[in-house]
Amino acid sequence: MKVFRAPPPHLSPPSPLPSPAWRARGEGCSAFWILLISLFGLCGCGKLDLRQARHLEKAGDYSRALKVYERCAERLSGERQAEALERAGAIYAGVFGRCDRAVPLFERAARLGPFPDAKNDWPAEARAALLECPDLFPLRPGSRWTYVDSASGGANMRLEVSVSTEGSRVSGAYFAGKQRFRGYDRSYDKADWALWETEGRERRPILRYPFRAGRSWSGASSGRKLEYTIEADGVLVRVKAGAFKDCIKVRARPVGEPAWVYEYFCPGVGRAKTTIGTSEGENPNTELSFWEPAARPSAPR
Fold first, then answer.
1. How many C-beta atoms lie closer than 10 Å to residue 114's C-beta?
2. How confident is the model at residue 165 (pLDDT cuts 50, 70, 90)?
3. Which stretches does DSSP call E strand in the chain?
4. 3 state DSSP class of 35
5. pLDDT level of residue 296 (50, 70, 90 thresholds)
6. Does residue 198 contact residue 218 with C-beta atoms inside 8 Å?
7. Per-residue model confidence (pLDDT) at position 301
8. Which residues are CB-neighbours of 119 under 8 A, at least 6 positions away?
């Protein structure tokens, strides 16, 4: 899965970036560029000014780099506009943690192009960014989750899974007490505006952008058609592992069936709860009881 590039870590206070997708492009910057931009008041939006913004970003002067990128995004066109939009969004999301400001910029960049002769595919990077801002299904290698049946709190069933080193495969096993009774092995990729889950030979989109109430799409499981709908967003989810806010509630309904599944996905956590829905109401099924995200990699200095 291709991820978008993002700026180096925060300057104040210095801390690791949220995920590998936000790693720096490199360190170092000529003082000449910073002085030049100060003298000219950040007012340009040509090829030279975009280059100046890149130097400011690499130097860690994110606020000023952001001003140049945003101004250029309104005055440039084509590939350069796509770059300005994508980089501004990356700074908002990766440095300032402002997905609310980043998403509109990523959306605009994602719809530009294609630019077959471009060095970087900025629209593609913006599309990848939209699936991780917020990240409703983090795939950081080494992360672990434990799910239990809601009725017994794990006495009857427990599922333990973790992300493989390549960051796309989630594997583990089901347990009844201490007895392992079934394996779990699925892979995931983020592409074409969706999060895809592959189990065996089946690949289905379990999430699709935009992550807002009313969004609907279709897929298939075991040869049967599924209809997906985001029933609600901004949901507060309480499970054994804790309380998580700004989650989304997704309904997956087999066509023609009287029952369906609700899955709750939470930013930075992933799948937090599963319930069974019928015309009579919603019944608990499984929930997250333990969650351990992998340590964030140290940003390059």
1. 11
2. confident
3. 144-149, 158-163, 169-176, 179-191, 194-199, 202-208, 216-221, 224-239, 242-254, 260-266, 270-278, 281-292
4. helix
5. low
6. no
7. 32
8. none
Per-residue confidence at 289, pLDDT binned at 50, 70, 90?
Answer: very high
Contact 225, 218 (CB under 8 A): yes
Q: Among all chains, which residue has been given the structure tokens 């069936």?
A: 257
Cα–Cα distance for residue pair 265/51, rounded to 1 Å: 39
- Give yes or no for a contact between 202 and 221, defined as CB atoms under 8 angstroms apart: yes
Tell me the two tokens of residue 14.
């210095």
What pLDDT is attached to residue 15?
Answer: 38
SS3 per residue for 39-77: HHCCCCCCHHHHHHHHHHHHHCCHHHHHHHHHHHHHHCC
Which pTM does this prediction carry? Answer: 0.80
Q: What is the largest CA-CA distance in the chain?
A: 70
User: What are the distances in angstroms from CA 42 to CA 33, 93, 127, 188, 189?
Assistant: 11, 22, 28, 42, 39
